[in-house]
Amino acid sequence: MTSSDQLPRCPVQARDGAQWAVPQGRWSAAELGEREIWRRLRAQLAAAPAGAGWDLQGLQRLDHVGAQLLWEHWGRRWPAQLQAQPAQRAMLERVARFSDVPAPRPEPAGLATQIDALGCLVINACRHFRSLIELIGQLLLDTVRLACNPRRGPWRDISGHLYATGATALPITALVGFLIGVVLAYLMALQLRQFGAESFIVNILGISLIRELGPLLGAILVAGRSGSAITAQIGVMRVTEELDAMQVMGISKGFRLVLPRALALAVSMPLVALWTTLAALAGGMLAADLTMGITPSYFAQSLPSAVNVANLGLAMGKSMVFGVMIALIGCHWGLQVEPNTQSLGQGTTASVVSSITMVIIVDAIFAILFRNVGF
Fold first, then answer.
1. In this predicted model, what pLDDT tens digit does every residue of 91-144 receive, in sequence order?
2. How many Cβ atoms are within 10 Å of 117's Cβ, its own excluded?
3. pLDDT higher at 110 or 169
4. Higher-scoring residue by pLDDT: 26, 197
5. pTM of structure
6. What is the mean pLDDT of residues 291-306?
7. pLDDT at residue 1 above 70?
8. I need a surface site. Which of 97, 235, 277, 317 has the fewest CB within 10 A?
9. How far apart are CA 261 and CA 267, in angstroms?
């Protein structure tokens, strides 16, 4: 129990016609940590005149907490009149030195700064691209290893990811595909009816959905759904230090983490794209029947002659590439996650954005390279 003469207090005295604040007692963390004492002392400090002098020689104890309290009360400036012992002054000077941290100077927003920021972005992008290339090379080596010894392969992981990335994605992809087919059919009907070319809706819907929109929609949905899940799973393993444990035990991260997800998406992505295309065609059939009177039987009979089967093969081929790239990008950003939740959120966001961007870029490359296929 602290005695009354040791309690921190700050009376004001008149000396030679001037007001002096005379702190007394023990100004230390033990006493100032009590709420009642702190409230009473704060009221006494508020009652001290603004231009009063300060006499600290009557203090029984002054540690860094009491010195910080005085320094903040003074507005981080030395009072005009101060009487203190050498040890007390040294304590106050130390608190003042570490409290007055200069604000960082803003960097000039000139051309050199912008060029430097652009260079940092380019270097960072090259670093990620190099890591992705290394991941692709490791995937090829792991694929050869699996082909040489298939009995030691992670088949249980592959089947689990097949279900997670394929079967569970069928409802949302079917819904989005069906609605896109309905929207496209309605918009095309408004234009084709003006020229009496309603029958060409089969050609337009068949080419656009089978060759482009079906695989693209399926890949974008899988990238936002499964790509983010892959990054989050591996990122949580980084946060919980499971990846470090795998490295200590000599377990290959590429063979146990990247390979099962890449193979699962390479198999499930073409099936999801085909499912999305069929749902979109069903929506287009329904809308064409309601708006232009084109029956589903006529639509189904005209579709094989309007769309070359090579378009379907091209769609399945690039869907497989989409699946592998989504898996690699998701694994890449998951492995780049640092052991904190903020990095996990940033990595998941970057994974989704990178996957969708890569899907569109790869789709454009396929469109340019195979522009004469299927026509």
1. 888 888 877 666 666 666 677 778 888 888 899 888 888 988 998 999 999 899
2. 12
3. 169
4. 26
5. 0.68
6. 82
7. no
8. 97
9. 10
Q: Is 342 exposed, middle or buried (0-12, 13-18, 19+ CB in 10 A)?
A: exposed
Strand 12-15, strand 82-83: pairing = unpaired
DSSP β-bridge partners for residue 13: 20
Which helix (DSSP H) or strand (DSSP E) does residue 129 occupy? Answer: helix 111-148
Q: Which of the two residues, 192 and 309, has the higher pLDDT score? A: 309
**pLDDT grade for 305, boundaries at 50, 70 and 90:** confident
CA gap 270, 319 in Å, rounded: 5
Cα-Cα-Cα-Cα torsion 309, 315, 321, 322, nearest 10 degrees, comes to -170
How would you class 6 by CB atoms within 10 Å of its CB: exposed for 0-12, middle for 13-18, buried for 19 or more? middle
Q: Which residue type sits at 315? A: A
CA nearest 7: which of 24, 29, 22? Answer: 24
Beta partners for residue 59, in sequence order: 25
Residue type, 108: P
Are 339 and 236 contacting, i.e. CB atoms less than 8 angstroms apart? no
Q: Tell me which amino acid residue 352 is.
A: V
- Mean pLDDT of the chain, nearest integer: 85
Q: What distance in Å separates the CA atoms of residue 55 and residue 41, rounded to the nearest whole number?
A: 16
The letter for the amino acid at 137 is G
For position 375, what pLDDT does the model report?
A: 61
Phi, psi of 53 (to 5 degrees): -80, 165
Tell me phi and psi for residue 19, to 5 degrees.
-95, 135
Distance CA 300, CA 285 (A): 9
Are 48 and 12 in contact, with CB atoms under 8 Å apart? Answer: yes
Residue 269: what pLDDT?
93
**Measured CA angle at 169 (ends 167, 172), to 5 deg:** 135
- Please name the residues in contact with 139: beta carbons below 8 A apart, sequence gap of 6 or more: 254, 258, 259, 262, 324, 328
Residue/partner pairs of 191-198 with CB below 8 Å, 24 or more apart: 192/292, 193/292, 198/292, 198/294
